[in-house]
Design a protein that fits this description.
Organism: Thalassotalea algicola
Strand content: under 5%
Distance between the termini: 7 Å
Function: Role in flagellar biosynthesis.
Family: Belongs to the FliQ/MopD/SpaQ family.
Order of helices and strands: HHH
Subcellular location: Cell membrane; Bacterial flagellum basal body
Oligomer: single chain
Pfam family, one: Bac_export_3
Shape: elongated
Number of helices: 3
Length: 89
């Protein structure tokens, strides 16, 4: 295994992790921002008010995008396992 192959595998894995995490975190981030703007506009300083909407959006993102997330992970794993003979030799 050459260092270039190792770097390519690591780069692909890190890109996949960033993609999967962003698919879950970005919707929650946007809802948290909207709730924060609402709290600032209405002067409501309740800390727990932003928790429930973010939790619901995160769960909805996992429910709606779960199939896509698992499919991406399985595609990467299958590609990685199928490349073992070329990497080892």
């Amino acid at each position: 295994m050459t260092p270039e192959v190792f770097v390519d595998i690591l780069r692909d894995a890190l890109f996949l992790v960033i993609l999967l995490v962003c698919a879950i975190i970005v919707p929650s981030l946007l809802v948290g921002l909207m709730v924060a703007i609402f709290q600032a506009a209405t002067s409501i300083n309740e800390q727990t008010l932003s928790f429930l909407p973010r939790l619901i959006v995160t769960l909805l993102a996992l429910i709606i995008g779960g199939h896509w997330l698992v499919q991406k992970l399985m595609d990467y794993t299958i590609r990685l396992v199928s490349s073992i003979p070329s990497v080892v030799s």
